[in-house]
Specification:
By secondary structure, the protein is an alpha+beta fold. It folds into 2 domains: 221 residues, Orthogonal Bundle (Endonuclease III, domain 1); 47 residues, no CATH class. 45% of the residues lie in helices and 12% in strands. The protein has 15 helices and 7 strands. A 5-stranded antiparallel β-sheet has the order 1-5-4-3-2. Strands 6-7 form a two-stranded antiparallel sheet. It is globular. The termini are far apart. The protein binds a DNA duplex (13 and 12 nucleotides) through helix 6 and helix 12.
Length: 300
DNA sequence: AACCAGGGAGCGT
DNA sequence: ACGCTCCATGGT
């Protein structure tokens, strides 16, 4: 029997915190208001609200198939099973997990994720959001929204960006990242870099492939591998993660990259990427720094 | 008003 | 392998 045509659903799920998941800097196209988050998945308008027992999903049009939403939100993932794969005797990590209950990883579109993270270098979360928003408004396709809702725009496709000029991109306030993004778009369109094929590669090869792109180093490659592709051991190391790793596991002494990667590989296990996300979120929340500029403070 | 944020390229060591 | 500077922008 076919499921009914509906434009709103409740996804029954526990341990899913929308605020930390959509606001923590893994995806940049979501907008928060008083009671929920609005964004677009695969060019379709979506509004998500935390309700008792799950997540309320509102759409602009009726659908039968919700798999594009559940795939994005990864609501089929059993987070307890993931956490159970973390190292048993790591009290520091356990503590981080405890302070971040409900933090999840979502599964993003590879191009949008790659482009967003090319834009992320040396930028704070609010600024990345700002750039993504401007870029989408000016160069992305408009999305069908329910009556009364404000206009929304999908993140521009590689083809949409490839035909622009560096000047057009710089006008979206992305500075020196403009030539990187433009080249990535053009090389994606030309097929020189094949984003679908990357998902089928072995992790280290996929990483090398992404790092062929100008403006994509280890950190950004790992973000794309973790947030867009199914590589649960990808482990992005930014300054925050490096900081928390040296504190927790190296007595605050500095470690070279090689030793750090060796440690990560042998310590965190099958779902290292999730562990990274908990450590990242935890250290940012507890660093004592003013997070108002990061977009995290008003969310939590 | 200088300085900071903070990833990657490109350099020199 | 390591360290340094620059990049563009917006916030403090």
């Amino acid at each position: 029997m076919m499921p009914a045509l509906r434009d709103n659903f409740i996804l029954p799920i526990s341990d899913y915190d929308l605020d930390s998941t959509l606001g923590c800097g893994q995806a940049f196209g979501w907008e928060r208001d008083a009671d929920g988050w609005t964004g677009a998945i695969k060019g379709r308008w979506v509004r998500l609200t935390s309700v008792c027992g799950g997540i309320k999903v509102q759409l602009a049009q009726t659908v039968r198939d919700l798999s594009w939403v559940t795939d994005y939100l990864q609501t089929n993932v059993n987070i307890r099973e993931i956490i159970a794969t973390f190292p048993k005797n790591d009290e520091q990590l356990r503590g981080a997990v405890k302070t971040c209950v409900g933090l999840r990883l979502v599964r993003q579109d590879p191009w949008e994720c790659l482009a967003s993270f090319i834009l992320s270098s040396t930028k704070q979360i609010v600024q990345i959001r700002q750039i993504v928003c401007t870029l989408s408004e000016r160069h992305g396709s408009s999305v069908i929204v329910p009556s009364g809702e404000k206009a929304r725009f999908a993140f521009p496709t590689a083809s949409q960006l490839a035909m622009l000029s560096e000047v057009d991109l710089r006008a979206c306030r992305m500075g020196f990242r403009a030539p990187y993004l433009l080249a990535a778009a053009r090389r994606t369109v030309s097929g020189e870099i094949n984003l679908s094929a990357i998902g089928r590669m072995e992790l280290s090869l996929a990483r090398e492939e992404l790092m062929k792109l100008d403006g994509v180093g280890e950190k950004i490659a790992d973000c794309v591998l973790l947030f867009a592709y199914d590589f649960p051991t990808a482990f992005p190391v930014d300054v925050w993660v490096r900081r928390v790793l040296t504190q927790f596991y190296f007595h605050g002494r500095k470690v070279n990259n090689h030793r750090l990667r060796c440690f990560i590989e042998k310590h965190f296990g099958l779902n290292a990427g999730y562990a990274q996300q908990y450590l990242f979120h935890h250290v940012r929340m507890t660093s004592g720094k003013n997070l108002s500029a990061t977009g995290l403070a008003p969310i939590s």
